[in-house]
User: Fold these one by one.
Assistant:
Number 1:
Amino acid sequence: MAKIIPYNPKLKALARQLRKNMTFGETLLWNELKDDKLLGFDFDRQRCIDNYIVDFYCKELMLAIEIDGNYHENEDKLLKDSDRQQRLEELGVRFIRFSETEVKADTFNVIRTIETLIINLIKENPDIKLPLSFDLSLLE
């Protein structure tokens, strides 16, 4: 069963604003994640967790997906990202990161990478509740 992580309700308005103003890369990836398209798992976009907002989050897998734009290359932003990721990992959240450029240039392989990670997470954690539409042959 997925662990429930509390969040700061003051972040809800910002998360709503971020959902309305997604980057092109975020939009591309969201089109592949929404409506349980990715192996049947439910992902949220701009999800509040603890005192942070992650780009995409699957509660059942406790998996955050981050799309890093050019502004993430700034040293201060890199340190903040690292601290944020470390804090959320302490709460049990797993992370996978892609650059905005990577998502725009090669969405197909980004999706394949996420699928491989999900399959490996399921193999390592038999307690993960699988969606009814999950293809069990992927675990063989």
Number 2:
Amino acid sequence: MTMTVGELFEALSTRFDSDAAAGLNRTLQWKITDEDPGVWAFEMADGQGRLIPGGVDAPDTTFTTTGATWMAIAEGRQDAMRAFMTGKLKVKGDMMLAMKVPKLFRTGF
């Protein structure tokens, strides 16, 4: 069964590793730009995480990509660093925070 981009973001909090996020008070944001566009933010505070559909005004890090690329990264079929290096994934803001994302969320379903 294939999830939609929206369903994938709704499932994000179930894949959040609160131990890895201990002490982080930051907000990540994803901007999906293709046929199923949307913006989702994920706020981390004191080891807790919450999804914010529609995004926020001032995230610490923003990822911009297509739904297909994001699904492949989230499902573990695409390496996020390779997607970034080939221009499929754009990152704006705190690059150190962006590098921690693979540790903050478990991939695969």
